[in-house]
Amino acid sequence: MSLNETPSGERTHIGFFGVRNAGKSSLVNAVTGQELAVVSDVKGTTTDPVRKAMEILPLGPVVIIDTPGFDDEGKLGAERVKKTREILKTCDIAVLVTDAGNGLTDTDNELITLIKEREIPYLIAWTKTDLDTVKPAPENAVMVSGLTGEGVGDLKEKLARLIPEKEEKKLAGDLVQAGDLCILVCPIDESAPKGRLILPQQQTIRDLMDHGAIPIVCRDTELETVLNKPGIEPALVITDSQAFKRVGEIVPDSLSLTSFSILMARYKGFLETAVKGISAVKDLNDGDRVLMAEGCTHHRQCNDIGTVKIPRWLRTYTGKELAIETCSGNEFPDDLSPYSVVIHCGGCMLTENAVLARMKQAIRQGIPFTNYGLAIAFMTGTLERSLRLFPALHDMLADN
Known about the structure:
This protein is an alpha/beta fold. The chain is built from 15 helices and 14 strands.
């Protein structure tokens, strides 16, 4: 991703779903104005989800996703249907693509049920309307033809109206005043991406600048030097979670301190749930299963935060023999009942809807749900201090 592009987690994700040969790929190509997906009369041409991040008027920055047919068959077909179900969990809007010559099938109705269960806004695209035989369309359908382009403009306009107006959210800009100094502690170690900062760090810098604050970026190894410089009186210190303990020891107790991960949990809307769920960490017993969930896929280093560092901290903190499992990207188990707690990443690469869908799933199944930053702060004894910025949550922690 270019540094100037809208991050994937900030784009509206629009998934195109339907049975094989319903015209999904042709419609996706017509909507995007590109030969994004392979088109064929042969059923099952789309074997893997195809994604494209782009700007589409009047929709704005979006990710368009073409999915395999939901009626695919055989062992490989079942895997493709599984992938399509995973995509459905991440979408902000769904487009059910239905062949107008066939009308709604049982599979289409199954998809509608799944979409409604996940409370996803959706439209029905009544495709192939250029053919001779067209069945009557449902009331909420848009008549379109991927071949001729008829109705595509109308589809875009109606999709745009499904996108809710988002209130302006802030990562840290509402925690400081214009002109305040803020120190951002960004360790550079073997897990840091070469030549760049990670996305939450980039977004926090921009958010602070947008609100007139002055970010000062340093490594944990230079933090003490920065704090001792004349005139440096930060209103807020934000640290990478991995350096919480070291940073907490350096930063005077009189200064406000929190982490990128805690701010990201607030930004994505699940910080309160994460605070409620953190007490599950101290209640873990021998043999308990813990799910470490990440929203992105990346090359794991030898000291990876999700698969190495936090599991090591968990075992040291609890003194228990734990079974720790991981999932990443669009993978997230449908059944969370085997787990004693879900510890999720900050979710910077996921849309707010995708993160909240996972959170709601955990709540429905009675499984505590927290995140990396809170877990690290809790186990290093810095969580109480990190939540002073949020009095209601600070009090909630004290009550747990």
